[in-house]
Design brief:
homodimer, 228 residues, alpha+beta, Arc Repressor Mutant, subunit A, three-stranded antiparallel beta sheet, two-stranded antiparallel sheet, 11 helices, 51% helix, 18% strand, globular, DNA-binding
DNA sequence: TCGACGGTTCGATTCAGCTCGAACCGTTAG
DNA sequence: CTAACGGTTCGAGCTGAATCGAACCGTCGA
């Protein structure tokens, strides 16, 4: 009994141009309908439907029916991490000459990673949180210090509510463009959510791109000192 | 310009039964010849050759020619991590009824992850190293404390030599069976090497399985207290 | 009740890519 | 030098899977 077949199941499910495009779209964190996904992969909805079934069967994607719509989304954080890691390996093994894309710099700066913030800014924030000991490691576990809890509460995040979720509060997630960690987990998701609520950041339609608005630039600078 | 195609390149390279089997074999950490890899995937050497070319083209595998042999190996730690992560996702999304295999428990206990130790024992060792502050986090970086350096030197590892490598000294690697970290990086590799040299552990031929021998059981117990 | 719309199922077609036999190249051993 | 051996290349056959048109099912709005 080898592990080969199990890897094949997962990798073959991802390793088709259409399905990869769908997963990439879903990495934006929003759940999308079958038709939306088909159109953004450039195929008909019949074909899209069969691809989506494969993704669901493989356990990479989950469905939620709502009226006559069916919303598809990345199944869980593990899968999101796997994809993020894969993007990283792909970027590093890519043929350098087709490596530069127009939107690439903006994506490197700030983007959505499933449900939390990634990119230069996210890495920078994460490291500042650690340096000022709002986040710290207890053994190998990343945790929020007492100061950190107060800080987050002031920022508008109900930490207690997050703790009651089954999901881990803080996790480190390896950033594919920076090769350094950024904040994931329930807190990472809540933090990004809060940036949107405050109007500090805006998510670009149909892309993983996140734009930091002037108010956010200012607010983050005030909160953390100047961002790189 | 989307990221879809780049993911496809990597995932499609992995997502073939033969190539997955080859990669699984290479995750044992040893470089293998084309013929060996073909035979362990159950195909002829012509077919194997073309698969290996695809793996090399995708940047997942590297070759080293030596006389009339060509030795293939996992390209780098990133790729190894990606595969490890993929095994984890595969295990967690697997159909539970075919989840149990004969060698599974032993594999969960101790196995090679590319070039370092993984499994229950590895996770346990890692956590004990942290708890006794031989390893600690400085900000987000895992480092060896002064005590840790002394400890490793006593254990027979030349830490200074490892530091001079370009490769990171300590890294945490997520264990797919345990979902907790174990020690990777140059130190992780050296530690496993030392276990073999001392005769504390033995690697099973043609598998990722590592057997801890009585001397090792005793020695580790003496070094760390009783292992789980 | 009916038409519009989102989504799936079925069947036929097409094509990429996996496979192996045969031939070939380079290295090593005798 | 020659035979054996590891490995690759080439060509032809085959199969699994992606694709789309057409038909169908369920929900929504009028």
């Amino acid at each position: 009994m080898s592990i080969g077949p199990s890897i094949t199941r997962i990798a073959a499910a991802i390793g088709d141009p259409v399905r990869a495009e769908m997963l990439a779209a879903l990495m934006g964190g929003r759940a999308l309908t079958a038709t939306e996904l088909a159109s953004c992969a450039g195929i008909t909805k019949q074909t899209g439907s069969s691809h989506l079934r494969r993704l669901v069967d493989a356990g990479l994607v989950t469905v939620r029916s709502q009226g006559r719509h069916r919303y598809f989304g990345i199944a869980n954080e593990d899968v999101a991490h796997l994809l993020e890691q894969m993007i990283g390996v792909a970027a590093r093994t890519a043929n350098p000459r087709l490596h530069v894309g127009p939107k690439e710099p903006a994506l490197r700066r700030a983007r959505v990673c499933y449900d939390h913030l990634a990119g230069e800014i996210a890495v920078d924030i994460y490291e500042r949180l650690l340096r000022s000991e709002l986040l710290c490691f207890v053994g190998e576990n990343l945790t929020l210090s007492a100061d950190g809890v107060r800080w987050m509460r002031r920022f508008g995040i109900d930490v207690e509510r997050l703790r009651s979720q089954r999901r881990a509060l803080c996790r480190a997630c390896l950033d594919w463009s920076e090769r350094r960690n950024h904040l994931a987990g329930a807190l990472g998701a809540a933090f990004l959510e809060r940036l949107f609520e405050r109007g500090w950041a805006r998510r670009e339609r149909g892309s993983r791109l996140v734009t930091i608005r002037p108010a956010g630039e200012l607010g983050l600078k005030r909160a953390f000192g100047s961002l790189r």
